[in-house]
Amino acid sequence: MGLFDLKGKTAIITGSSRGIGRAIAEAMADQGARVVISSRKPGPCQEVADEINKKHGDGTAIAIPANISSKDDLQAMVDETNKTFGKIDIVVCNAASNPYYGPMAGISDDAFTKILQNNIISNHWLIQMCAPQMRERKDGAIIIVSSIGGLRASPVIGAYNISKAADFQLARNLAAEFGADNIRVNCIAPGLIKTDFAKALWDNPDTLKRALTGTPLKRIGEPEEIAGAAVYLASKAGAYMTGQMLVVDGGATVT
């Protein structure tokens, strides 16, 4: 069995109908995992699942739409996954919200609450739903897709950054709680990646130029470049890593 082999494993990846989540689902399927494709809209989820099944054979991917802000939706997704695949070995909390772009002084209570709910509490819910069976089997990998925003201040995405910093602590805490049962809990902290989600930060050439001034690799990242980190953390290769944040940012945070 190779270091990165995920044969026989089942992974739930939230926000996986596009962007980083989709790239992670595809990379895990490439390594032999069965994957659950999930986001709010059924159509895009099914399209991604169909493409993965076309490449790897029917039954590799299933689409289970879920709104991460709904505890019932998340529980239904977990139940459906257990029913179809028999177990859950890997959880990737990738879905997130950022409904506000501007200074903290101007953010509404609703927008702030939504960010904290979707980016922290919903991750906690999903992990809580999947951890018991992992603890029973003494094996599991939990990955939270955070952001280098959690390491920095920002005049425009401050609330989002606060939520992403909290994700680092969620991983550290759960790593301490679940470690004795051989469950690893880690974060990936991407820099600026070319996704629809981050479009406000790269779509405008001036904004992009500003964003890249301190990036040694002088370019924006691609979703696939985050997927490898997720495979590492989910596989035997990352078996001794827990409670950590893996920064994948083209060097942006070192300058």
Task: Give an overview in words.
By secondary structure, this protein is an alpha/beta fold. The chain has a single domain, classed as NAD(P)-binding Rossmann-like Domain (Rossmann fold, 3-Layer(aba) Sandwich). A seven-stranded parallel sheet has the order 3-2-1-4-5-6-7, sandwiched between helices. Helix 4 links the parallel strand 4 and strand 5. Helix 1 packs across helix 8, helix 3 runs parallel beside helix 4 and helix 4 packs parallel to helix 5.
What is the CATH C-level name?
Alpha Beta
Report the biggest beta sheet as strand number plus sense, adding barrel if it closes. 7 strands, parallel
| Strand elements, count | 7
Distance from first to last alpha carbon? 39 Å
Lay out the secondary structure.
Layout: E1 10-14, H1 19-30, E2 34-38, H2 42-56, E3 61-63, H3 71-85, E4 90-93, H4 109-137, E5 140-145, H5 158-178, E6 183-190, H6 199-202, H7 205-212, H8 224-234, E7 245-248
Parallel strand pairs: 1-2, 1-4, 2-3, 4-5, 5-6, 6-7
Helix pairs in contact: 1-8, 3-4, 4-5
